[in-house]
């Protein structure tokens, strides 16, 4: 492992202070309002694509999403001779003007995702390997920010798995155990994901040997203590209903009260339903203000 870490100073740089759980030493660059980190062999290529609103159409390009965040999967340039055949590039957009106006006070979402991925890997939790991150600012305001990872081959989201049940009920039981164990370990590491929907959990490998990986990391927060309510809020976002008691039992593993955990989840879901109705009522006003 590379004995380096991302400095917290404003000029991104690699320092020999602590270890990054990466199989390479990231290389930094800065200039013309842009700064970033990337795998040394990908640095020049990454710098050439980060400014593009959309990647050029090629037979290897796969588009996952275009608004508000652009997410693409593309083949690794053959001339770079890298061990990863596919890359995922995510360019973050804006959901509202308030996020842009507050950007000088925050880390960019791309950098948040990069740091969170390093945190997960450091604690032995799977996530696509981060290969690059960059941001451009003007007067402190983020103009664009991009995050790049290696693509995990032959994956299916937990959402797709539950809709199709390719391994039958027995397979679902295995997956529930894996997801519960992964989520518990993530929380024990001090990470609160805050967007733990089933489309952000990836499954790979054959039945009986499944592995779980987590994506969409830019909303995550590290907390010094993980109370049961925060744990419940993450679990509630998965949307399980019939399987909720079973999931909570696997998650608790004798450490927490299953009854209390289920009660917290249902309470949080009621609050989210109430909040949704309030937002719908305020939607015309928000549209008028263009927020």
Overall geometry? globular
- What is the strand content? 15-25%
Low-pLDDT residue intervals, each spanning 5 or more residues: 1-5, 7-11
Strand order of the largest sheet: 3-4-8-9-7-6-5
Helical percentage:
25-40%
* Termini separation: 44 Å
Number of strands: 14
Count the DSSP helices. Answer: 8
The main sheet comes to: 7 strands, antiparallel
Keyword list:
14 strands, 7-stranded antiparallel β-sheet, single chain, 291 residues, globular, 2 domains
Describe the 3D structure.
The chain has 2 domains: 5-150; 156-272, Transferase(Phosphotransferase), domain 1. Helices cover 36% and strands 22% of the residues. The chain has helices at residues 43-49, 97-101, 109-122, 158-164, 168-188, 228-236, 244-252, 258-289; strands at residues 5-6, 14-15, 27-31, 34-38, 62-65, 70-75, 86-91, 130-138, 141-150, 156-157, 191-192, 201-204, 211-214, 221-222. The protein has a 7-stranded antiparallel β-sheet with strand order 3-4-8-9-7-6-5, with helices on one face. It has a 3-stranded antiparallel β-sheet with strand order 10-12-13. Strands 1-2 form a two-stranded antiparallel ribbon. A hairpin with a 6-residue loop joins strand 12 and strand 13 (211-214). The longest helix has 32 residues, at 258-289. The model is unreliable at 1-5 and 7-11 (pLDDT under 50).
């Amino acid at each position: 492992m590379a004995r380096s870490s991302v400095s917290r100073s404003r000029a991104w740089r690699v320092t020999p202070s602590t270890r990054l759980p990466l199989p390479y030493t990231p290389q930094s660059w800065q200039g013309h309002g842009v700064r970033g980190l990337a795998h040394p062999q990908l640095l020049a290529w990454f710098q050439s694509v980060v400014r593009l609103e959309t990647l050029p159409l090629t037979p290897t390009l796969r588009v996952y999403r275009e608004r508000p965040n652009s997410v693409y999967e593309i083949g690794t340039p053959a001339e770079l001779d890298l061990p990863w055949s596919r890359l995922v590039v995510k360019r973050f957009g804006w959901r509202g003007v308030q996020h842009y106006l507050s950007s000088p006070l925050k880390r960019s979402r791309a950098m948040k995702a990069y740091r969170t991925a390093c945190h997960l890997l450091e604690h032995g939790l799977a996530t696509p390997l981060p290969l690059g991150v960059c941001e451009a600012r003007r007067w402190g305001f983020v103009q664009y920010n991009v995050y790049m990872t290696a693509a995990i081959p032959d994956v299916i989201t937990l959402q797709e798995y539950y809709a199709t049940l390719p391994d039958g009920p027995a397979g679902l039981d295995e997956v529930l155990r894996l997801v519960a164990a992964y989520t518990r370990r993530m929380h024990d590491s001090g990470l609160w994901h805050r967007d733990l929907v089933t489309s952000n959990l990836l499954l790979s490998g054959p039945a009986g040997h499944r592995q779980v990986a987590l994506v969409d990391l830019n909303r995550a927060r590290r907390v010094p203590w993980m109370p049961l309510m925060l744990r419940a809020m993450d679990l509630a976002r998965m949307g399980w209903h019939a399987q909720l008691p079973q999931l909570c039992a696997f998650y608790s593993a004798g450490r927490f009260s299953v009854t209390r955990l289920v009660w917290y989840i249902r309470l949080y879901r009621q609050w989210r339903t109430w909040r949704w109705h309030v937002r719908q009522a305020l939607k015309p006003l928000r549209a008028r203000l263009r927020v």
